[in-house]
Design brief:
With about 150 residues, the chain is of the alpha+beta class. It contains five helices and eight strands. It has one domain (about 5-150). The protein has an eight-stranded mixed sheet. β5 (about 105-110) and β6 form a beta hairpin. The longest helix is centred in the middle third of the chain and has 11 residues, at about 95-105. The termini are far apart.
């Protein structure tokens, strides 16, 4: 199966130099586990328009790995917002979008107040071990959009 992960932002999204440098290195001492984004084809932007509300949409790889969390910890500023959405099987995207619209199992991650909320309830995140706590949480689902705010 092939999936597509989308990241949406209210303004153009640029990876910090630290993450770009890691992604572009030529010597690999450990397996590649970067966080990278690329422009999304207008075809997909139109398809996910009923779900994603932010104007700048990207395809993302490495969501949930160490450099995604580096971005959230070091570069995600107060007032920033991101939306995440996954289409698990490209060929059946209509089913995924319909499920998201019908069931709406959204996830909200409030990094300012250290709160994680999903369809099961609201949970306080560990301030001292935020990354470790988020590593054990669902970050993206096909049944709703994940909104990360600070």
């Amino acid at each position: 199966m092939s999936s597509i992960l989308f990241l949406a932002s209210p303004r153009p999204f640029d990876l910090p130099v630290e993450i770009e440098s890691y992604n572009n290195r030529t010597i690999f001492e450990e397996p590649w586990c970067g966080f990278d984004i690329s422009e999304t084809d207008k075809y997909w932007v139109e398809i996910i328009k009923p779900i994603i509300t932010l104007p700048y949409v990207y395809e993302v790889t490495g969501l949930g790995n160490q450099y995604f969390f580096v971005y959230l910890e070091k570069y995600f500023a107060e007032g920033d917002i991101l939306e995440l959405y996954e289409i698990p099987v490209q060929n059946w995207y209509n089913d995924s979008i319909q499920r998201a619209l019908e069931y709406d199992e959204t996830i909200t991650i409030d990094l300012k107040n250290y709160v994680y909320q999903n369809h099961l309830g609201t949970f306080q995140l560990n301030r001292k071990n935020l990354v470790e706590d988020l590593e054990h949480r669902t970050l993206v689902t096909e049944r709703g959009v994940t909104t990360i705010v600070k």
